[in-house]
Amino acid sequence: MTDNPSKKSRQKSAVGLKYQQNNQDGTSSGGAPTIIAKGFGDLAEEIIALARQNGVLVHEDPYLSDFLATLDLGQEIPDQLYHVIAELISFSYVLQGKFPDSWAKIHNKVSKKV
């Protein structure tokens, strides 16, 4: 008897990222998004539930999650993921009705009100 890996159910995983666009004094932090939480199984479920309870948007991508799970807590994302993660962060801002001040200055058509 052999186990067919394609028929095994995948263990749920979760990875939390933090990105601080600006420092409190308004200057750019210049840092990349950082891994702040990660877990598998029940811990992953708790991370996702806490994120949702706190209004954090959750993106489900098993391949991205698997890759991010190989990183250590506190580690910045690698250069190869900047574009992908930047798009996800930008999209989450738009979904929340948030736009960078530079957009409003450049594209006078963007309103911060939703």
Write the layout of secondary structure elements.
Blueprint: E1 13-18, E2 34-40, H1 42-53, H2 62-68, H3 82-95, H4 101-106
Antiparallel strand pairs: 1-2
Give the C-alpha Rg: 17 Å
Strand arrangement within the widest β-sheet reads 1-2
Number of strands: 2
Give the low-pLDDT segments.
1-7
Query: Largest sheet, if any?
Result: 2 strands, antiparallel
| Estimated structural class | alpha+beta
Helix-strand pattern, N to C?
EEHHHH
Shape: globular
Oligomer: single chain
* Share of residues in helices: 25-40%
Annotation field: number of helices: 4
Taken as a percent bin, the fraction of beta residues is 5-15%
Average pLDDT figure: 80
Span of the ends, CA to CA: 58 Å
Q: If you had to describe this structure to a student in words, what would you say it looks like?
A:
The chain contains 4 helices and 2 strands. The N and C termini lie far apart (58 Å). Strands 1-2 form a two-stranded antiparallel sheet. The protein is an alpha+beta fold and 114 residues long.
What descriptors fit this protein?
4 helices; single chain; disordered N terminus; 11% strand; two-stranded antiparallel ribbon; 34% helix; alpha+beta; 114 residues
Quick recap:
By secondary structure, the protein is α+β, with helices and mostly antiparallel strands. It has helices at 42-53, 62-68, 82-95, 101-106, and strands spanning 13-18, 34-40.
